[in-house]
Amino acid sequence: MSGHSSKHLRSSEPQGSVKRPNQEQDPQPVSQLEKAQELFREARESKLYNELLDLLDPETPPQKSEACYLPIIKELTQIIVGRSDIPVPPSGSYLWTFLNLCNPNLDHKESGKKMMEFSMEALIKYIKVEDKKKPTLPTPESNSKPGKSQLVDKLADLVFMIPMVLRPTGDRSGFPQGDMADGQPLLRFFCTKTTKETLELHVQHRYLLFLLKIIAFVDNWINLWKRSGLGIERVAADWKEYLGPPFSPERLKMYTTAIDLSPLQGFEDISDEHVKFDHLRN
Questions:
Q1: Which run of H or of E encompasses 181?
Q2: How many CB atoms lie within 10 A of CB 140?
Q3: Would you put residue 61 in left (φ > 0), alpha (ψ -120 to 50) or beta?
Q4: pLDDT digits (tens, 9 = 90+) for 237-274
Q5: Taking the C-alpha atoms of 117, 123, 129 and 131 in order, what is their torsion angle to the nearest 10 degrees?
Q6: Nearby residues of 173 by Cβ (< 8 Å), 6 or more positions away
């Protein structure tokens, strides 16, 4: 596969494990709250707080804010209830909660510590309430008739796939949640109605450009992956892990790049509606 994308992807770097010194007896188990506190201690040492601050603009789409704190809420729900499919807390009610917990300045004041304590309690309460409302989804191992999404997700460990979930953001009953692109549901990209201004040929050109940009994105990742020297049997699972679920940074990047209508190098004719669609096939 030969890619023409000008984008350069970051390769995922494995996180180093922390080695504990030898101890004469087993350490005491760490509580959920301590694990949650450690999670946000690490977040306060990252750039997450500054990224969240940039989203305080009232015109920022809520989906963009939710995508920003999606990775940390998934880790937190895994700690608290042992699952990561809890709906993302709405930014209108919880953006300041995450800001408080990720604010490195609050950690040094007694009043700040109280704010972080209240914010943590609010998040944990939200997770537990949603956990009760949302039954655990069946998996291929635990159910003889798993859902289609679970089967496809499991198959992606063995077969190279480009996942795409077209579901309105308001629909949180299904699994997984719908994909996003440039702060809006990816579904909207495919809902353009054909009018005098948007001819059928124009829509076909948009879809072709969308597919080519995805192929270029994937091709770039494969070229980087091949340098790792890993066996080909791992390529599907590694791609699935790199891309992640909907709202994950790399998956958002792929679809945001794909819906961008700027021409792709080497395929500039696609944006010219005077060029017949049959000519583009050659």
A1: strand 180-181
A2: 14
A3: beta
A4: 889 888 888 888 889 999 999 998 888 777 766 655 55
A5: -120
A6: none
Token pair 């190098």 is found at: 265
- Tell me the three state secondary structure of residue 267: coil
- Non-local (6+) Cβ contacts of 186 within 8 A are 164, 165, 166, 178, 179, 180, 255, 259
Report helix angle 62-81 to 249-259, nearest 10: 150
Q: In sequence order, what are the residues at sequence separation of 6 or more whose Cβ sits closer than 8 angstroms to the Cβ of residue 257?
A: 5, 7, 213, 217
Which long-range CB contacts under 8 A does 224-229 form with residues at least 24 apart? 224/9, 224/11, 225/11, 228/11
Closest CA to 210 of 167, 244, 255, 179: 255
C-alpha 68/C-alpha 94 separation (Å) is 12
Average pLDDT over all residues of the chain: 76
Q: What's the CA gap between 75 and 107, in Å, rounded?
A: 21
What is the per-residue pLDDT across 53-77, written as a single tens digit (0 to 9) for each?
Answer: 888 887 888 888 888 888 888 889 8
pTM surpassing 0.70? Answer: no
Query: What is the identity of the amino acid at 202?
Result: H
**Residue 202 φ/ψ, nearest 5 degrees:** -60, -45
Residue 90 and residue 97: Cα distance in Å, rounded?
Answer: 11
pLDDT at 168: 77
